[in-house]
Amino acid sequence: NEFEVFAPKIPVILYHGSGEKRKKMARNLLKTSKLLGKTVLPVILTSYEVPIYDEKILSKPTWKYLVVDEGHKIKNHKTKLARVLGGFKSVNRLLLTGTPLQNNLAELWSLLHFLLPEVFDSLDVFETLFTAEELEREEETEQCLEKEKKSNILTLLQEVLTPFLLRRLKTDVDLAIPNKKEILVHCPMTKIQLELYKAVLDKSILVHSKFYKDTEIIPDNPDGTKLKRYSKLRDPSICHVVEDREWDVVKFGEGDNAYKLHVKMTAPHIVLIKILNHPYLIHPKVFHGSNILQVDDEITQSSGKMTILDGLLKRLKARGHRVLIFSTYTAMLDIIEEYMGMCDYEYRRLDGNTDIEDRRTYMREFNTDPDIFAFLLSTRAGGLGINLTGADTVIIYNSDWNPQADLQAQDRCHRIGQKKPVLVYRFMVPTTIDERIVNRASSKRRLEKMVIQKGMFKAGSSASIQLPLEELRELLNEKQHNLEVQPNGTVLTNEQWESLLDRSGLDCHLERT
Length: 513
Prior knowledge:
It comes from Lygus hesperus. By secondary structure, the protein is an alpha/beta fold. The protein is built from 19 helices and 15 strands.
């Protein structure tokens, strides 16, 4: 589409489709044509999967320019995609990415290795020269400052990167994107969540008998259509199975209400995260003898996060805002989807199972129909290639271990075309694994800020300027959130709700961070 707008005469081949279709198209990949009196070859556009399938075909030519959008897809040099693309013959190479450093310096080396394999040929040497573990631990600020003062590791690393890295911020090109503010919302645990959480830590889960009341099957809609049903649990970490040695058996209740739950504790942190999101992810409240979820007030009352979400959505809708809701678990989106139906909220949903045509349709509908209040997205599937500027509010229901995944998610609406300030709510249950995930993500962002720091890597910038220690101290101590709101018990006060909803100071400013 962009070639049609900006360079309509340049020949372009969209190389994708079935194997048979690509086989026919391959005959024209090197077909020449005349443009302004010169002989030119076409530009080849393709997806990340095609080079893996058609390596033999695409590795034959010597490409004048090899451009990889979303360059962080080859951050792991051991993947087949990184190996295949790295093996292509090319005169020039270009990586485009908003996140060159996500988790560690090894990923940065992988990108540099793709660009210049002769120069960045050894990961071991790179990691020996540049060690930055201290940057990932908040308590080591002074140690990091002292090390930088003695060895200038960050300064040296930036000198190495400067010839190969050009960084453009939104503010550098005056995109006039409205401001963005992030609020960290401390969510409480309900009684059942607290008991389940403690039980998993003690390896003795107790399940309330009220989750197992006999109830009549919920009827269909009056028009004969089926109500949405909660998908059958298929997660390997939690399941009702015959007892064996691989599963921890934990009991809940007494007498006739005693119940055994078999929990695979090889990944207890996954179990804990699910409990914090919603106890239904551990054991849903279903109709007796079925896998059909009961949809009633307990869907909000049994989860602290859902209680906050319920109150927040009601207030946001009343004020005319529209919302994107992200979760790393599609099963959690299932539960939120049931809640949306219960509240009669118009919404759309996108996850890894949504095909391309449906994605386009849902995006178009959301951006053009103001009556669609919310869009539910899985963090990884909805974090790239999605434009949802019709929303002005983002809710991160649970954080990703990789902070860049959440940042990419926020940018679905905080991007070119956005006309309103954007408010981001990040839910977190304090003093739990939830807080550990948020803190770990903040530590990873510290590393990014130190290495790919603000103000560096612009065109014409010097590579020999030493990083001021006071500036380094400010970056190390910089908070990731504009505001934190902590509930009083299990509810928010009116003052706290107003603080959550406050957008003052955002309307007249452009984002400068």
